[in-house]
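Please review this pair:
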Amino acid sequence: MSTNEVKRCIFTDNRLWSLMYWDELREHRDWQITYCKGGNRPYLNSAHIPEEISWSALEEIEAFFAARQLPSRIYSNAGQESHFGRGLAERGYQLLPEEDEYCYEFRLRRQHEIKAWKSYGKLDQDLLYIREIDPWSEGLEDFLLINQEQNNLSPAMAAAFITKIRSQLTLDPNLSLQFFGLYYDEQLAAILTLGIVGPYAYLSEGACAARYTQRGLFSALVAYLICYCAKLGLAALYARCDRIAYSNNTLIKLGFAPFYYRSLWEKS
């Protein structure tokens, strides 16, 4: 995948996340900065750099974070032995390996065939169903409860989640965000967010309620959305996962291919 394609994937996904989380999204041709006031993970407040940038551009990024009393953080695929990586280390940056991230792609075909989504579940299939959650309904609060618990949202992020979605969702006609839930016996058991921009779709905020983990329900929901996107005639489906996320195994099992790996650098 070319640098421009990687940039398009990461930058577009971040624009979709602005509908849910970001308080600021600073855009440049070669990089983005995401800022979340209540962010409790380093990656939430970082610069996203798909390729090397000038040191003067890095200084501009550092000034942004300094003004907000945060350490400068850089998401990049630059390794420690690369020219850019060595330069970051000389400037006091260190790698945060727990924040390493994989980016995945699934190339869609209009006639894509995948076994029935219910077959992935390890519970009574007659009690399983999937529906899109209306963001103006109480279902979004149920979605948030699972998202907060399983994806470790900070209290500040959780408090702003619904308000931000309902106030931002219709502002940009180029950004489409949908919320899906898998239900078992009328109980919300698994969630996923689907963003669509042009011919591409992006998965995020996937999780299972604690009582339904290890039951194949997240796999079932991803399988359903693969077919959903294929029927829409979209070209590809993307997802990002940190290195230790359970969803890495699910995505690979269902045919997603990793195309980019990046690490987070933080200035000490």
The chain has a mean pLDDT of 94.
